[in-house]
């Protein structure tokens, strides 16, 4: 008995091994496109195991590759008979007609097939997926379209919208999206619709069509706010923040949201540097009244957006600055010095220090901020950094070091700590302690913040390139002193040193740095044309030096904003993008360049968040 069982096992194993060898051999022929050799093996394997999808698939493709239509049709018909519930096999029969260029027969076949199953959702999906698997995507879409007529617009909208998107059919994508939103009473489809519409915004004509159709649906269905929501999304995608603001204010009033969504839009405008729209948004919230719950938030946001817009200009309007100073003082007077007004006070301190040039007033404000309870620790640290800057402007070096040191110690591994370390290194540079400054800057070259890293690299290169040429490093120390004087707004002392340096050290390598600092001096006193000439000298005469891209960027901005020569500015921004593609200013320069190339005015550039 044991011997009989053993023999049976051997026979079964031998059969299984034989099939395995045939399958491997057939697959090898198939993969090598040796279809004539593969055909016989697959014919044999199919007779042995017709249920194997793998064998059936390769056998069918082999027959098609050998252009054996009758055999391919018979194979599929046999498969349909054996497995009548497999709808994908029925699709394969139409697929054979298509592969042998019998489109008329294929059309009739698929029309009948989809018609027979168009009332059944699962069958429709199986047929459509089988069509897609056979790369017949248009027929798959038509299958869903035909079934949609029977089962309703919501039955297959994810598949249809996805199909239209994949085939770049923006018109049908738009039309169906709007129909879906009308039929979807639960608003469950809105987020998906918004996501798949992303390809529409990349085409101006398609985007306009979407907007016009949405407006039409808004008028036809005034009670359905979903179209107002979509219209808002369209404006946001197009970065038309002014239109988006009108839309969100309308929704806010209709739903009595008390400014919640308007504030959200205002924050988005700030992030995209669309300050004019942000100001209007915050003004709307403020004008709702002092008794409204978001009044203080609106006031803080308004002050912040006014500050950003006013100071974003290369040549800020002093009258606007004075008005903003008065507005902030009034806000603080009404609400006191506390956590509600701390951010606005910080902005006031910045205005006093950098624009009004009343550093003492700024110090007083910042000292009150850092002693105010209940403020966020990182905000207090940020205030300490600015306070350290103000102390440094006043020549109070030790207190400046103290502020920077406190923040560095508290936020050693964070961006705030890295900024504090850089400021301390810059202080050491100002005072001529180059060795200690270089040690700190070397640490900061790998800082997580790109700006800090770039600034550290730039300052380290400045020190490295201009020290060691003489034993006393006197030239570099005098240049650093001149830069410190400019930082302290002591323009005459700074200019005096800069004018003497070339004569005292004629063979030194500081020439481009001297030109650059002279240009900054001229900017600080409002002589922009003179500053621009100096910047031009740097990027033309010292194009390989580290300040060339800085000078080119400054020149381009002065040319655009102050000299009002957009065509020339466009050329300068293009030069920066092409010749200094690793510069920190490339991203901003590229945005401005393309904005100018498209014919946008300075106002439009500001409006769209291109200029800063």
How is this fold's topology laid out?
Layout: H1 2-31, H2 35-48, H3 53-65, H4 69-82, H5 87-99, H6 103-117, H7 121-133, H8 137-151, H9 157-166, H10 170-183, H11 190-196, H12 204-220, H13 226-237, H14 241-255, H15 260-271, H16 275-287, H17 295-312, H18 318-335, H19 342-355, H20 359-370, H21 377-393, H22 397-410, H23 415-430, H24 434-444, H25 450-465, H26 474-487, H27 491-504, H28 511-524, H29 528-541, H30 548-561, H31 566-579, H32 586-597, H33 602-607
Helix pairs in contact: 1-2, 2-3, 3-4, 4-5, 5-6, 5-7, 6-8, 7-8, 8-9, 9-10, 10-12, 12-13, 13-14, 14-15, 14-16, 15-16, 15-17, 16-17, 17-18, 17-19, 18-19, 19-20, 19-21, 20-21, 21-22, 21-23, 22-23, 23-24, 23-25, 24-25, 26-27, 26-28, 27-28, 28-29, 29-30, 30-31, 31-32
Q: What does this 3D model show about the protein?
A:
With 612 residues, the protein is an all-alpha fold. Among the domains are: 376-465, Serine Threonine Protein Phosphatase 5, Tetratricopeptide repeat, CATH 1.25.40; 510-607, Tetratricopeptide repeat domain (Serine Threonine Protein Phosphatase 5, Tetratricopeptide repeat, Alpha Horseshoe). The protein has 33 helices and no strands. α15 (260-271) runs antiparallel to α16, α16 (275-287) runs antiparallel to α17 (295-312) and α30 (548-561) runs antiparallel to α31 (566-579). The protein is elongated. The chain starts with a helix and ends in a 5-residue tail after the last helix. Residues 1-18 and 606-612 have low confidence and may be disordered.
